[in-house]
């Protein structure tokens, strides 16, 4: 070995040579590739130019670009959340520390989303929104499959049945049957005719196979199941319980209320509300006190479940009128 080469560099080369030899590979070929490779740049690493090219408005209204970008940012955060949920589900160590660490990350992501929703509530011109939104039909934020996957990863499918029918289903029922009664379907169904909106039909056609595949994968291993499988001492960890309750509250109360705030600003008016894109029944679909979706029901008292989201709803209505 050349004496001009620093000892620590020489040692790393020896380690690399051993690594590639053990795998039947030639270190020299990899070094040739490294020699001829271009230096990595920030913009190439994160595909910046591609990322910035993905905002394609359908109208000439400037604020439509805000609408597009905020939803794209939201979907990226949803992807981060799912990334952490999968790690909890795959974990074999069963410790409250690991569980809590991942939930803290998830709650941090949701906190950013909730805190940033003023971009949607106050950051767009109302007149512009009411015009360019008509070019979005029948697309709707309702069609976010990643949000539905967060729900599926978090809790048994039976906990996501609409509130009027929930007592009729349990984890013993076939997932395909439970799926037909999930709460969000009623949010995109015509109240008078019972017919599914085009928004819902499109969504189901595109994503039902994916959602059902994942529902079967986590049938006995959702976040709720993983919590219940922890040793009793780990289950009783105060920090873990608080993190789970915060996750439940963030997703099933606070996130919905921010959407209600936006809906009241842009869609509500004295002489009747403006219909949401996709025809979703937002006044009956969004209030958390109506659906009472709870991921971890054993972590809440009967009184808390009975009054789920009501005090927050009252506060939200008062601040958005």
TrEMBL record:
Q: Which InterPro entries would you find in this protein's record?
A: Trp/Indoleamine_2_3_dOase-like, Trp_2_3_dOase
Spell out the Gene3D superfamilies in the cross-references.
1.20.58.480
Q: Which residues form a coiled coil?
A: none
Signal peptide positions are none
Return the Pfam families for the record: Trp_dioxygenase
PANTHER family documented for this protein: TRYPTOPHAN 2,3-DIOXYGENASE
Q: What is this protein called?
A: Tryptophan 2,3-dioxygenase family protein
Task: Supply the source organism for this entry.
Answer: Aquimarina rubra
């Amino acid at each position: 070995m050349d004496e001009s080469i620093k000892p620590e560099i020489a040692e790393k080369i020896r380690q690399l040579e051993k690594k590639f030899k053990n795998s039947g590979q030639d270190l020299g070929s990899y070094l040739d590739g490294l020699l001829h490779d271009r230096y990595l740049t920030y913009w190439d690493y994160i595909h910046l130019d591609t990322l910035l090219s993905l905002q394609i408005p359908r109208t000439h209204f400037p604020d439509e670009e805000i609408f597009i970008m905020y939803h794209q940012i939201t979907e990226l955060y949803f992807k981060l959340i799912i990334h952490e949920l999968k790690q909890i589900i795959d974990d074999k160590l069963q410790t409250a520390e690991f569980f809590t660490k991942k939930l803290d990350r998830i709650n941090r992501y949701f906190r950013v989303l909730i805190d940033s929703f003023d971009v949607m509530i106050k950051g767009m011109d109302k007149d512009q929104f009411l015009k360019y939104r008509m070019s979005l039909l029948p697309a709707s934020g309702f069609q976010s499959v990643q949000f539905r996957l967060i729900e599926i990863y978090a809790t048994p499918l039976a906990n996501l049945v609409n509130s009027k029918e929930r007592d009729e289903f349990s984890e013993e029922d076939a997932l395909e049957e439970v799926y037909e009664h999930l709460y969000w379907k009623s949010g995109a169904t015509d109240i008078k005719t019972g017919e599914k909106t085009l928004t819902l039909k499109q969504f189901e056609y595109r994503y039902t196979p994916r959602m059902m595949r994942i529902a079967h994968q986590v049938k006995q291993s959702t976040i709720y199941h993983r919590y219940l499988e922890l040793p009793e001492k780990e289950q009783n960890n105060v920090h873990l319980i608080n993190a789970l309750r915060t996750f439940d509250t963030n997703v099933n109360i606070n996130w919905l209320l921010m959407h209600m705030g936006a809906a009241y600003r842009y869609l509500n008016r004295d002489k009747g509300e403006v219909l949401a894109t996709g025809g979703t029944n937002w006044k009956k679909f969004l209030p958390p006190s109506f659906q009472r979706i709870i991921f971890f029901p054993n972590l809440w008292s009967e009184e808390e479940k009975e009054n789920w989201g009501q005090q927050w709803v009252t506060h939200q209505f008062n601040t958005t009128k």
